[in-house]
Amino acid sequence: MRWGLIGASNIASAHMIGAFRSFEGDEVVSVLSGDADRARAFADKNGIAAAHTDLDEMLADPAVDAVYISTTNEKHFPQAMAAIAAGKHVLCEKPLAMNVADAVTMVRAAKEAGLVFATNHHLRNAGSHLAIRDLIRAGRIGRVQSLRVFHAVFLPPHLQGWRIDNPAAGGGVIADIVVHDADTVRFHLDENPAEVVAMTAETGLGKGVEDNVMSVWSMPSGVQVFAHESFTHRLSGTGIEIHGTEGAIFAKGVMTQRPVGDIELRTDAGSEAISFPDHNLYIRGVGLFRDAVAGRGAPAADGVDGICSLAVANAVAEAAQTGRRVAVDYGGI
């Protein structure tokens, strides 16, 4: 597969280019940035032949089979629609768009065009989360009663930029982290949040956007979910706890881009450390995307998954702004 990068981003250079090139014969053939100097410097640094500032020019290249979109959030929708119109498969960063209606439009357009569309939700590719899901499905903790996800971290300076001061570009901790946690909760519970309540805070790092949020979600099954996301917690660690009628899962250090962390299963029989594979999350996700393009299976997180995670995040934002309990609107999917 031959990839075009829409966005000369940190995640592309740190994680995705290596994942694309890990498959024999696959290559990254071009990169797009709104700044010509940045595009050329990024291409030179990462061994990419073509550097573009014009999206149509990039998409007109028959050498590009698929695109990876990692620009700021407000650009995802028009760029994805252009790629779909050009007949390119799409792997898009989260959130898919600024609103659910646009996300639904892009996902439906790809389906109508017969193209693979996927959301780059990396956590569901982690060995840790695959192991957690297996424990739940095997009934090791009985019927799930509640879930707590804590994803309060310190956003490193090189990633701050628009995330902490640009609401028009989709900045703020809700768009950046709540979407990942929404997808992870859906992955483990196999259901979509129905209603949410939330409160946000701006503690000084965020300038015009929230840098902390706490929310409670109700699931159709009756499971309650508590979520805490932050850009400002240096030493809190991350993790997820899932409590059931017959046991509980305590996973620490697993809300990350790396294949690390610890999982403990607690039941009346005692405590058990759960092992899990340490494969690269992004390579697994790219591999499933490639298989889907070849007609074998589906992406790890498809477009509908991206719509749902965005819908939950937007409901959290609305609940925090209005002080009301908000029903999650999934755009009719």
UniProtKB/TrEMBL annotation:
InterPro entries listed in its UniProt record: Gfo/Idh/MocA-like_OxRdtase_N, Gfo/Idh/MocA_oxidrdct_glycsds, GFO_IDH_MocA-like_dom, NAD(P)-bd_dom_sf
Top-level taxon: Bacteria
Keyword line: Oxidoreductase
UniProt entry tagged with the keyword Ribonucleoprotein: no
MF-aspect GO terms: nucleotide binding; oxidoreductase activity
GFO/IDH/MocA-like oxidoreductase domain boundaries: 130-249
Protein name (database record): Gfo/Idh/MocA family oxidoreductase
Organism: Paracoccus caeni
Organism classification: Bacteria, Pseudomonadati, Pseudomonadota, Alphaproteobacteria, Rhodobacterales
